[in-house]
Amino acid sequence: MTPRVREILSWYESDNPGVKTNLARMLNHGTLGGSGRMVILPVDQGFEHGPARSFAPNPPGYDPHYHFQLAIDAGCNAYAAPLGFLEAGAASHAGEVPLILKLNSHESLLSDRDPISVQTASVGDALRLGCCAIGYTVYPGSSLAGEMYEQIRDLAEEAKAAGLAVVIWSYPRGSSLSKDGETAIDVAAYAAQIAAQLGAHVIKVKLPTAHIEQDAARKVYEKEKIPVGTLAERVRHVVQSAFGGRRIVIFSGGAKTGDDELFEQAKAIRDGGGFGSIMGRNAFQRSKADAVKLLGRIMEIYR
Amino acid sequence: MTPRVREILSWYESDNPGVKTNLARMLNHGTLGGSGRMVILPVDQGFEHGPARSFAPNPPGYDPHYHFQLAIDAGCNAYAAPLGFLEAGAASHAGEVPLILKLNSHESLLSDRDPISVQTASVGDALRLGCCAIGYTVYPGSSLAGEMYEQIRDLAEEAKAAGLAVVIWSYPRGSSLSKDGETAIDVAAYAAQIAAQLGAHVIKVKLPTAHIEQDAARKVYEKEKIPVGTLAERVRHVVQSAFGGRRIVIFSGGAKTGDDELFEQAKAIRDGGGFGSIMGRNAFQRSKADAVKLLGRIMEIYR
Amino acid sequence: MTPRVREILSWYESDNPGVKTNLARMLNHGTLGGSGRMVILPVDQGFEHGPARSFAPNPPGYDPHYHFQLAIDAGCNAYAAPLGFLEAGAASHAGEVPLILKLNSHESLLSDRDPISVQTASVGDALRLGCCAIGYTVYPGSSLAGEMYEQIRDLAEEAKAAGLAVVIWSYPRGSSLSKDGETAIDVAAYAAQIAAQLGAHVIKVKLPTAHIEQDAARKVYEKEKIPVGTLAERVRHVVQSAFGGRRIVIFSGGAKTGDDELFEQAKAIRDGGGFGSIMGRNAFQRSKADAVKLLGRIMEIYR
Amino acid sequence: MTPRVREILSWYESDNPGVKTNLARMLNHGTLGGSGRMVILPVDQGFEHGPARSFAPNPPGYDPHYHFQLAIDAGCNAYAAPLGFLEAGAASHAGEVPLILKLNSHESLLSDRDPISVQTASVGDALRLGCCAIGYTVYPGSSLAGEMYEQIRDLAEEAKAAGLAVVIWSYPRGSSLSKDGETAIDVAAYAAQIAAQLGAHVIKVKLPTAHIEQDAARKVYEKEKIPVGTLAERVRHVVQSAFGGRRIVIFSGGAKTGDDELFEQAKAIRDGGGFGSIMGRNAFQRSKADAVKLLGRIMEIYR
Amino acid sequence: MTPRVREILSWYESDNPGVKTNLARMLNHGTLGGSGRMVILPVDQGFEHGPARSFAPNPPGYDPHYHFQLAIDAGCNAYAAPLGFLEAGAASHAGEVPLILKLNSHESLLSDRDPISVQTASVGDALRLGCCAIGYTVYPGSSLAGEMYEQIRDLAEEAKAAGLAVVIWSYPRGSSLSKDGETAIDVAAYAAQIAAQLGAHVIKVKLPTAHIEQDAARKVYEKEKIPVGTLAERVRHVVQSAFGGRRIVIFSGGAKTGDDELFEQAKAIRDGGGFGSIMGRNAFQRSKADAVKLLGRIMEIYR
User: Which value, in Å, is the radius of gyration of the alpha carbons in chain A?
Assistant: First the structure.
């Protein structure tokens, strides 16, 4: 147990040893084990975007076993997926990589300006599948956000009592926000705060832009001269917004992008005090060899 | 146990000794302990308004430990916050300051004319975190008010059976009310009455203006010549509206304002028979030294 | 036990002895005890209309203890109020007057054409407060009436199993009705029938006018020459509509009115075979001495 | 919060903040508040030994209010009693002294060589009465000990989840033990260990003699030369046996004895690293003035 | 994941991935991780035999933290203990060593010819403490064995549903057996079979002697010429008796003995196809340096 991991665990002072154990399992696993940084492989795009959009660029990804093995080969801290994907491979790969069961899902056949991600797995499923954590998506800004807040509250209470960690994907969306607003720095910081207040142990947000969405927020950013010009500064602000750095915040890059940009993002996350990356499409939409190489280089940046 | 606290406890005649014990813990704690007056530090603005708007003016406030320590150093009767903030510091500060767990929250990314504050923590959470009370916000006047009334009814019954006190934030909002109406004296008095009828032990309302919102009410105020010209008179009317003074009513000032105005408000609350203040942004958006000084002067007014 | 009370109790032949005991407690209490007639004091206007509109005309009424004492001094059969009002005085006045806990409430800040009265207390609350009955308001004609019917069904089942009587306030309102229709004789009779079919032991309706709201009903009233010309005739028709007189039906007069009119109403209720009055504002919006005198004269009419 | 209390709380590292808060409430209350030592007033003798044997020596003790006031006047850290005694005074003394509800009781009308103490109150009772802890007696060595172990396991799990501390009275008795064996040093140390393994936060044992009951133990005490010659040495050994000093162990002297002996016992408890005394009959079987004086002198020894 | 561990996991084909994950966690941890062999440190003697008999030979063992650290330093696969011992250190050592919570305990103050080990912890406790498995002792041959079989059946069903592995200590005792019979080869093999049939994933038995206890069994052993002359042969027979080698069987040596004998035993376990050792007193009753050395040499034998 490294001093850094011990320090991180100390932040979760109200949690039982079970939760701390499962956080430690994720923090101590893989290439970055013990560093206090994490790279997580999430593969929920099949449900979220459909199979062809997700897996046709690299067809082995249609097979759920592929992603377990990718997470293992690449030395990720954890692998996150919905019920079906985990059920299809959790026995074969028992004990090989920490698992996060996504408890809710959203499909994109539906054209909904105010999305809701609905429950598609349970805390009991997470236990029977040997997971370290539950995952849950909230959409701050959606008119249905309240329903998700109430559901994750209920599920998080149950998960924590059973010693499972809670990972919240906090993705602003909905009719209250402009498209740019979804990744605006004020909104991203707010999304991180909401997840932290909901009791998340690990918070996943998108990398924010310098755009400021809310008028009421803009006044404060300008008056207090909050530095948000560089990506590293924005990462630092988001991490600060998650309880002054007392919660693990990891960042996703979103859609597939160029590798150099990914490395720049990782450096900014590292320099801004972020805790790592959650990288899905950029990882599983290329060959496994390439993906392992890519993730390895990202991990080198964090180490 | 002072005669005044004993008198106040006697008003809660249907409550079990557990509820009385927790009310006594809050009434007897801190600088105002035993006086029958309370100053409570609430920090739910991170969820309600976003992190930068809340904490950028005094960045140590991003850290949840800061607010525990502020409430302790300032001698507040209690500290109120949502789940995440309390989880992040309740073990380190166990037994140092009475805690109120806010059981519902509302985020302001959403543009909602008829707001609803949704459940984000439970009575079980309040017990495991060692809280003295649950807190809950209702928005009288919102078309969704009924959902909140039913939820707090359910939660309050559960909390009281477990010996926890119930604090209701009663904030009129919604499409039925004009902006001025939200703090109109008739509406504020009504909001206090609703909270009392819902079974609140402690009621938090905003300081009211002399505006009268409802036509049906205006006739009565004029006919009965209810004095509402001064702030102290309006406080007196609101306290009277909460069961003729048999319920603890405390007042919030809202957004950050000048210190002299805060002192005037505190004097009016005192002179009108109010039970104290709940002061968030005016406290935590300045340096801790200044906040302790400010709260100390407010407490001197109440003592 | 008088023959009349014994006869009334015999109508509730499916109910358990607990329900009969609680009905008997109300029927045998106060000035009218044993007569089969009832005068009930209801004070739910604080929640329904706001505190100033309710209590400013007689300020001692802000204090919940006042109404317990008024019901006791006036010799009422029962006192009905929402949770907060009963909690605030039920221990001091334990055993002094039968209590009815209003389980739902509606606030008038909201501008709603189709009102719903939401649950604000529970059967468990009624038991722990020592009540004889639960009270519940339905709004026949509101588009949300169904939600109330389902809720009272559920609550009534629970209350009866616990030996509590069920009192239903049946007040037609909503976008389906004209203003005059709310007190139309066909609508009032219909409201009484609905309450009876929902399983009410005691039904409270407003005194009806001779107006007929529904075309389909008008044809029958005309064809069958149902006498509804006088108030006594209309009372008789409403009582008949509540299971041919096998259910206790009591009448409210609504807003404060002249005393002579009240006496005329009581005589009509008596002559029409009604079971008594439920009188709120006309009682508590005058001095206690005057209220006791007024109620005494009403009771003399019924005796 | 003194460093010593903070240190003690740190030992309970698996417990939630609620448990820590209630431990802190007891450790910080009264004359010894903050010292890490405790003097608790227990009055369960009415049930255990009968009323005359318990209260006739000082008849005001028949009144449950007497003992609340004694604990308050003497500055005890907590007052422990069965359901009836706490119900009879918890409201009047709400918030004045930390309470421990004894959840099981044993009566001495029964001549049972293998005693069992049966459940006479619940965790829910403890919550509604505003208690800081539950108390429970086990009789190691009784052929019925297993039933008590299973019951306190169940109750302790429930209590801890609700934030209540767990105090176990561990009193060896039963046909397996000689009379001398009940207070033998090997048996007392074993009793402390059992309570600690059952998950007790606070352990109450009787002051042990130098007698050794078990042959298998005697060999070890002799071989390892465990010093048990003086009372302080025996206290030290018992404290060591409760997780090497990581659990609060307090001692009872049993039947009424001379004051000088009590002082000597307290000095031995202090010198042996014990955490304090639980003193019943020696306190409440003399006049209140004398009891307050006696307890005050005991506390001086611990301070 | 080594082929051997993968093979072992394949035997538990009805179990969910959670159980397999927790078995893998134990099989993959520590010095023997991946070998398919296990050395487990169990410290339940404080409850079973008393503190002095357990810890006086090496007094640091009174402190629960000591045993966590010993298991970690020695590279054990897991550490097993009762509730109190795990609660006292599970947070500080979260994630450092797989934990097995002993769910039942037996104290030796009691002179019971037919022992029963009673429940002193729950599956919920195991989850909140972050354990990989529950442990449970049965006493085949005790007249109370049936009660334990029924209880572990119930607990095992609950544990497996939650993904926890089940470790059964199967220790023949009771009035039906002679003292020699408790470790007789026929009885030991039978005990292993019973544990396997009860659904254990890991079975702990004592090293058997060549004695045969049961007449009915003796006939078979003689007729079938089952080789039980050497310890390795007896280990092989016991492993065979646990589903032909499809269940993990580990052996305990019992009381402290000479090191050379321990090494001979380990070699016999290895040569007989046993899966390892569970070694308590021989480990924690010497200095930690010596214990780490001893356990290291044992592990070398297994590697």
Answer: 18
